[in-house]
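Fold this complex.
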Amino acid sequence: MADLLQFLVSGITVGAVYALLALGFTIIFNASDVVNFAQGEFVMLGGMITVFALAAGLPLGLAALIAIVLTAGIGVLLNKLAIEPARGAPVVSLIIITIGASIFIQGVAQIVFDKQIHRYPGISGDAPLRFAGATILPQSLWVIFGATAVFVALWLFFTRTLTGRAVLATANNRLAAALVGINTRYIMTLSFGLSAAIGALAGLLITPITLTSYDVGIPLALKGFAAAMLGGLGNPFGALVGGLLLGVLEALTAGYISSQYKDAVAFIVIIGVLFVMPQGLFGRKSTERV
Amino acid sequence: MRLSPKLVSLSVLALLALVAPMFFPSGFYYRIGALIFINGLAVTGLVILIGYAGQISLGHAGFAGIGAYACALAPVHLGLPPALAVVLGAALSAGLAWVVGRPILKLQGYYLAVATLGLGILISMVLTNESQWTRGPDGISVPDLGLRGVLADMGWRLTAGQFWYWFSALVLFIGAWLALNLHDSPTGRALRALHGSEVAARTVGVDVARLKLNAFVISAVYASVSGSLLAMMNRFVTPEIAGFMHSVEMVVMAVLGGVGSVLGAIFGAAILTALPQALTMFHEYEKLLLGAVMILVMIFLREGLLPSILRRFRGKEE
Amino acid sequence: MSLLQVEGVGIAFGGIKAVDDVSFAVKPGEIVSVIGPNGAGKTTLFNMISGIYLPGAGRVMLDGQDVTGLAPHRLAERGLSRTFQNLQIFQAMSVLDNAMAGHHLRERSSVLADLLGLPASRRRTRATRASALQLLERVGLTRAAFREASALSYGALKRLEIARALALEPRILLLDEPAAGCNAVETEEIDRLIAEIAAAGTAILLVEHDMKLVMRISGHIVVLDHGVKIAEGDPAKVSRDPKVIAAYLGTDAAAASREEGADADG
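Structure:
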């Protein structure tokens, strides 16, 4: 029982990060129909910028803020320089562009930062808490808290604010949104910025647990992508469920079956689900129009 | 008279392969040439899948892994001659592609991308983790093909680099010939048709599911043979051959060069294989440059390098 | 016996009945038109007949056999072929290749033969090419044969779609607004083409907005409104039907026409 609890806690912690990644995929996909494989780099940047800001002697709060703002800016640049000019390109080209962006950002990071593995202490220290026989890092709670806060804030944003509704309208039908006067280019910029900021937040929260280096982005992006597809691309609720499900399944596999194959779970599950539900768990079913 | 594109492509390919060694400053360049041809082979398979049929795969390195490890393991454990190990690898790849392709190819666009990506990653994970067979992430040595010895006995002595240069050129030439045959055949037309419009292809009688599966299986065999050649040339293989980055590399080569044509894709393979060699001085900047090239080509030369260059030339003539 | 028989087919999208309980029949060599205002469900009806949508109710019979829900490529094997309202051209292929692709069922061969470029495969391609060139001549596209399809005008693409559909040598051809967006000259060409096809024995089911064209060439007309069949018969009968007039001109006109009728009766 204590084992199970332990696995669930670590699963939910990792799952929260996957959910934030999946959310980032979803926000950008909704605004632009692009699956942004560079999403993992935002997580890397969030962690790395914080590391180097701390090393420069800044307090954690300020370092985190700088990391989030800078990463959001990089997200906006990515949109302006690589995505907007490629409007209307086929899926294959868009995949190559965002993977290219991912490699490019890694290339810059290894020069600007370094190739070492880094970490910094958790927000509330690194002394584990004991609960019902399971040990929990206080940072895990921060990760879960952070993810919850993001999802609640986003839900309020989408349902209560005019801009949020404009984002939803754009996701639903870009042409119609443009026709009623929504500036869809602005929505795209906003979505990239928001998505990058969410990625950075995930990165700076998880770094004390999983460590970071310039090349952590791609594996994270793949997991986040799988989580987003699992939930159904384009659905924020699906991103949450897909992320958590993936995290928990991984932790249970590592605990009960084989830690070597824990990374396989994501892809076995995603292939299995797509066989049965080609649009993911909560994806929109599309009718062919001819 | 109009020369057929097939004849032109094959002639250009043969001519370049024959002439290039005259300009090699050292034996080392034979290896780079061979690497280009071997990558070109995998990429030619992707021309059939992506260029003709319009289906994406981010997992084809998995099949290269199967081909490579078949050559590492079958001679040792099954006592197969290395040449037959290549065939065994190709058959395994084809079989797996056939079984998995049926459900996977119902998916479209990004969903197909994630499913193929998952397939590739699972294969690379098996190769990494089943270390009692594969010796794990550190890799395993691969027996020699043995053909070079036979040639030497016949009085035709080649260095390893030279042998792999000519041998892989020959295999690529055959691969390109097959792919070009396919282009203007009934099957090729049906593949290109379903690329253009699946609905319309169905209404003219194309069994879309069957044809996509054909393309998937054929391209898997190309990737597998390419993996076999790579492993045998290096006499060594690690699970990285099946990894995500290798899958991406293949797709990037194909699309960058021009995935619509065999020659274009091979051109892409040549550029991306040679580029890192040329840039060894800038090793620090390799990732940065590669990423930038990928983005810029896709934005400014959407059809890929070769078609865009050719178009510009034709534009000037007119 | 009728070649195509549609029996009470219907389909709903998200609870809204797009087509409801529509029945009619097409005899061999006959030209039947389906007309109705925008959004009447004509294209949806076509999509159900050609196997793209699975009908929620009713059946489609081809040659007395139930073909409801059969995949489009199976229907093609049974001699049903179609064109699309929003063009579905193979854009990246040449005009000739588009027409050749229509021959798929007649040139099908083994993948291995195609890869190896065996003589059998090449012979088939040659035969297809000759036949495709003839078809292109028939629709007046010979000179464009080697151009990329995406370079053609709208009207030419409409004819290319017809050529591609004819390549199957269908027994029934579904044409979805073949003259939409065409100028007067192009419409006339398509008019002539349809008449020729029908004269050669192929039954035609036509969706078209150009009433002059419909009235001139149809043997039988089915009228849909809001997914329901409101009238059917020969052109003369349909054009006098008050319900049809109402559907096209709005209820005021229909009321007026009813009053007229009443006056005449009285």
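DSSP finds eleven helices and two strands in chain A.
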